[in-house]
Each structure stands twice: as C-alpha cells, then as structure tokens.
Design a protein that fits this description.
The structure is a single chain. The chain is mainly β. It has a domain at 98-330: TolB, C-terminal domain (Neuraminidase). Helices cover 3% and strands 41% of the residues. It binds calcium ion (CA) (3 copies).
Length: 334
C-alpha cells in the first residue's frame, strides 16, 4: 500500500513503558512532548511510570514510522511518529543526549550517543529503552554511529587518534578498528549491501562526500563543489545517495543555509530536491525508498518533514514550538 503523506489535524499519541506496554494514549501530541521534556530525568533502564489515563494494551513492537530526537534545554525525548504525523510515541527520556541515532536492521535496538559518562560515547539500548550498553570507552568524542545492513558492525567517527576519523567495531563493541587515516573523515553511512562505507571529508580542502570499501581501502570522491557537501545517506536499492549542501547559496565551506540533494551512487546526476531559504538537513530514505524524512527550521524552529523521493509533496509532521526536533531515522520495516 502506498504511503499516505497527508497531515492529520489532531495528532494522536501513545506512551510506551520500558516493558513495551502502552502506558497512556490520547490527543494533543505537542503538549505531551512538552510534558516529557519538563518531566524529571529518568534513566531509560528504569521502568517508565504511567502518565495520564488511557488504555493499557500490549505493544509487541514499535510502530512503523520515523524516530526523532525532540530536544529542549539539554533534555532529549526519543520519539516515534507515523510518516503522516499520527501516532506520536516516546521511546525514552534522557538528559545530555544530542545525536543522530540508527536502528539495528531487525528494529530491536537503537545506537546513539550520550555524554552521561562525561564525554561523547556510543551506546546501544533496546528500542523499549531497556538494556543500555556502552560500546566505547575513550576520552575523545565518539559520535555519529551507523549500523551495518547485516547488523554485525557499527561504524562511527572519533578523534581518538588525534584527528577526526572513521572507525568500525562489532555491534557488541569488540574489535574497534580505525578505517580512515586522512583528516578529517566523519559521518559514516553504509551501502545497503554492506560492501562500502561513505563519509564526509575535508581532505581536499572542501567538504565533500566520499565512498570507500568497508575495510577502508580505495576511497573515492563523489562531489566536487566549493560549497559544503555533507550528511549523506544511501538509498535502500543502492542506486542513489542523498546529501546536504550549501553549494547554491554562493557560500563556501560554512555559512549559507543548506538544501537537500540526490545523486547517483557513482556521483553522477547531482540534483537539488529542496528550495527554501532556511536550513534543510538530516535527510534519510524511507525503507522502501519512496519517501525522505528531513529537518527544517522553516517555521522558526526545527521540525520533522517528509517528502516523496523526487522532492515533491513536502509535509510538516511535527509541531513543537519550544523544542528542536532533530535526527529523523526510519524504523526498519518489520
Ligand atoms: Ca569517548
Ligand atoms: Ca534550504
Ligand atoms: Ca520544533
């Protein structure tokens, strides 16, 4: 069935407890997110207490849809929402997290960053918010984790060698290996067959998108603009790569608001998808490749948007005037 991209006027919310049960549900999702962000800090491994009244139906898995981080005053509510703006749900409420997140291929776990132990580290937990495990242990920043398509590995960026480089490890944290050795190399993203890792690098003097073999060999540059090209994501069928750039604003390196672009996976046919004077960021493919979720501050603060893969039919699916909604990630099809 084709995805519907109409916006429901009154979003519906469901709160999941740490045991996967539905703890509460109701309407006015924006008000509920404000309540979460204002609530006392809870570690995700502790059970979430019921809030409000409502049904207590059994939830066997997370709903299909988009996860995102709703951030306000150093607090982050990890939320999920349907691509049409309905069924807003909270996964966990945690302090000090500001990160993009990525889900294991079976959808059971989420990898993210936290500063809870004093500096940025990579953590994994169940999507119900339980079984938190720290995977990195280094005083340098460890950020931007990306799960390999078969679930066996996690690539991430770290300054542990002294410069910003791509590293990879087994998904249990063992066998941590540095893959790049040219500064800077960051924002890893996997090809859907797991054979390649793409990344952003400043090695040639400008911020460009590169692709290398998953073992770090044979890096190749895909973009050649004086603007800042960054933040890429590989399409599920392997044929295309999404990225962000300020190349058409006249700005070089930093500065200038960004737009979302798409190119063939070999770097040909670079095409702009958005056209708006405010920032358009964090674009990610839906699992079926037919839609793209992204972040924009075009209404004054950051919200999640969805559009079709050709850049048409843009729909705003969140409405949080006091929070920054960031880092959308599609939950895997289950
Ligand atoms: Ca660290
Ligand atoms: Ca823009
Ligand atoms: Ca917002």
């Amino acid at each position: 069935m084709a995805r519907q991209h109409s916006l429901r006027s009154i979003p519906h919310f469901i709160i999941y407890g740490a045991n996967g049960r539905v703890m509460a549900e109701g309407r006015n999702a924006a008000e509920q997110v404000r309540r979460w962000l204002g609530a006392e800090d809870r570690q995700p491994e502790k059970p979430v207490e019921a809030e409000g009244t409502g049904a207590a139906a059994e939830a066997t898995s997370l709903p299909a849809g988009i996860a995102f981080a709703s951030e306000q005053d150093e607090r982050m509510a990890l939320c999920t929402i349907d691509p049409d703006g309905g069924d807003l749900a909270r996964v966990a409420l945690v302090a000090g997290e500001r990160t993009r997140m990525d889900f294991s291929p079976n959808g059971g776990k989420v990898v993210f960053n936290s500063k809870r132990d004093g500096n940025w580290e990579v953590y994994v937990m169940d999507t119900a918010g339980t079984n938190l495990v720290r995977l990195t242990h280094h005083p340098a920043d460890d950020l931007s984790p990306a799960w390999s398509p078969d679930g066996s590995k996690i690539a991430w960026q770290s300054k542990r060698s002294g410069t910003l480089q791509i590293h990879a490890m087994n998904s249990d944290g063992t066998d941590q290996t540095q893959l790049t050795h040219v500064s800077w190399s960051y924002e890893p993203f996997w090809s859907p067959d797991g054979s390649k890792i793409g990344f952003t690098s400043h090695r040639d003097g400008y911020f460009e998108i590169y692709v290398m073999n998953a073992d770090g060999t044979n890096p190749a540059r895909l973009t050649h603009s004086r603007g800042r090209d960054f933040g890429a994501d590989w399409s599920p069928d392997g044929s295309k790569i999404l990225f962000m750039s300020n190349r058409d604003t006249g700005a070089t390196r930093i500065g200038g608001e960004t737009e979302i672009y798409v190119m063939n996976a070999d770097g040909t046919k670079q095409t702009r998808l958005t056209e708006h004077p405010r920032a358009d960021l964090s674009a990610v493919w839906s699992p079926d490749g037919e839609a793209i979720a992204f972040v924009s501050d075009r209404d004054g603060d950051r919200e999640i948007y969805v559009m079709t893969a050709d850049g048409a039919n843009e729909v705003n699916i969140t409405n949080s005037p006091e929070a920054q909604d960031n880092y959308p990630a599609w939950l895997p099809d289950q």
